[in-house]
């Protein structure tokens, strides 16, 4: 059957979806669908055997990033993916599209070992997106497999995916680059909090099953707790999302113990029960979240970027040319309502258009919030036109050019790190970051749930660092909850607005649950770069030197791995050496997706 699948795929003319009739002579539509069914099962089984991710990367949120950026795709997996898509396409062209959801459910169950209820819910939610892609987009095997598995499984020159589209930079010459200067002693430092990936579960139930066999647990509906080896504790569980009361108590604590000049939130507020979410739930969660912020931090500036979990279904962010029920009209107006207390009114059009905006926080200092779901390889809506959806990057250029002309410095917030975006989007973001390196003083991301470092290096001089990506760990309890506070040189005339240092805080979830609900979790300072890594300042050149030191010292690098896992012993106790270490080093040095020009 495998041989037959391969033979069939080689005989297709993908520009017309025409099939060589000699290969199908005597085959009925039902026979075609039987081959599709068998092929999908075989594909799922074989794909299941070829997931070679290093254990150090283990986190549900990073699964697709690994597939799309690691370059470790097995040839058989890629081949079978194309065969599978070819046969599904044949089923659709034969008028038997009702079979396709069942095929998708089988792949979900076998490949990803998910429960039937999960797969049924996900496929049901995604059906309109599949229909759009089938009706409107040229879905060749190269399209689908290149988009899902990464450009290593496609011919990157095919026009449909158009990986190499280019934004247009203005003709204004790039200013000469000057070294970043430390602030004068005693200069003002602002404190900026950074939280991400909260994933709060409004239906979390103490005592519910915490090992239910589903992607996330701790709800009444997640199975009989009497058969569970572990029950949901008060403050949360490593296999569940964050209880609402935990978030409330965390914010209450921070209100009493911290003083922030601004709060950055880089997305992902809803829970991981993605197979049963509704639009109403997503809107309610954001409403409750912003109300909580207003309660505890009424006078603090707040800047938010959209995560891939904000929409329903997950990863689904159609551009504005998608109209009607499938558009984002159900979400963006509500988002504007919730953000309007912090965001200037002249940004309403941008929020309603694409969920992005900019605001001047201080004289000479601007922040930009990007909707980087437009570069998410799992956002299938963008397949119809993958070139700068909703013109967001071109808009970013205009904002940065005005900032440069006005002498402003800029922080950019987004959910997905630029190295994890689809290739065209990633490379264009990098191009913008390099052109405006003297204006951008920090890139702030989340999404991976881990505490990570990324450095932007000049492709023309691969030892010169020109920017830093600050990737904060999650507040969610897949490891210990964490947040970060940056010390930023700013708030006075001619400040650099560079991050000088930061403080990364965690609380030990196990200890918090053992202490009980009457005692607030104890936040501890996990690390500080200037003290634990020996940096003078958190400048790009200093981070670049640290990466070199990681290469030379396994002991120092293991400290990074410990912080990567937010000091969660069960995750970080295994040493990361050899190939595992090399991959981490490469990830730190390469902020462009699929780029092999930076030595690592």
UniProtKB/TrEMBL annotation:
Its main location: secreted. One of its GO terms (cellular component) is membrane. GO terms for biological process: ceramide biosynthetic process; sphingomyelin catabolic process. InterPro entries: ASM_C, ASMase/PPN1_MPP, Calcineurin-like_PHP, Metallo-depent_PP-like, Saposin-like, SaposinB_dom, Sphingomy_PDE. It is found in: Secreted. Zn(2+) 2 binds at residues 268, 308, 415, 447. It catalyses: a sphingomyelin + H2O = phosphocholine + an N-acylsphing-4-enine + H(+). The keyword Transmembrane helix does not apply. Binds 2 Zn(2+) ions per subunit. Disulfide bonds join 78-153, 81-145, 108-119, 212-217, 218-240, 576-580. Keywords: Disulfide bond, Glycoprotein, Glycosidase, Hydrolase, Metal-binding, Secreted, Signal, Zinc. Its cofactor is Zn(2+). Zn(2+) 1 binds at residues 197, 199, 268, 449. Pfam families: ASMase_C, Metallophos. One of its GO terms (molecular function) is hydrolase activity, acting on glycosyl bonds. The keyword Transport does not apply. Residues 74-157 form the Saposin B-type domain. Belongs to the acid sphingomyelinase family. This is Saposin B-type domain-containing protein. It comes from Macrostomum lignano.
